[in-house]
Amino acid sequence: MRTNVLTSMGISEKAAKVYLSGLSLGTTSIQEIAHKTGLKRPTVYLHIDELVRRGLFEKIAINKKRYYRAADPRILEERLKGNLVAMQQAIPEFLNLQSKTPGKPQVALYEGKEGIETIYRELKEASAVRIWSNLDAGQVLFHDVNMEVAETLGKNGAAVREIIADTKGARRYSRLVVKVAGPTYQVRTGTVDGFANDSIIYDNVITLFRLSENNMFVVRIEDKTIADSMKALFDMAWKSARPFR
Questions:
Q1: pLDDT in tens, 134-153
Q2: What fold is seen in the domain 105-243?
């Protein structure tokens, strides 16, 4: 008999034998179960009490005598389904607890236009921002959001430094940002090719954007050590980048 299926659910091996025997015996007595399983009667009593607590056996009184009957095995299936649903609902909470493990970065993927705009809304609360960008890449899809973020950061007095791709389109778009963001926004041009998408560093967060209309997403990594390292790299690049007015 397939006791291993039941033991995988946390039922002891002897209790599993008692349950399977009960299924084949129907309404039965402790003595009949003991005979069929080869277990001693005290052992059967012990494990049948466990099964009664689990709802897998029920007690029945007939002519003042006590009998037992195994529950329909489909109860096990329904219970497993219920446990699966409960686990699926709890997974986000468990993952949240896991993400708070000391020394472990919090990594999340935000997909589509709405996901990217979620990051931009968070960015508006930053006090200092470092940006690598090719402004041509996102100007059509996110122009309104870009302007809103620039205006908010400017009003908040946030220190924003941006290294842009050294292209005519990027320089032209940067002039629009300067007008909205004001004097706290500084921009320089990068001399190295390869600016395809944006990367933004703020607080203890690094965000890596992929701004393709067919597959847009942003990876958000929150970790102080990683963020500090990326800030240092940006600062070194900033020193060698060309000022742009």
A1: 776 445 577 888 889 999 99
A2: Endonuclease; Chain A (3.30.870)
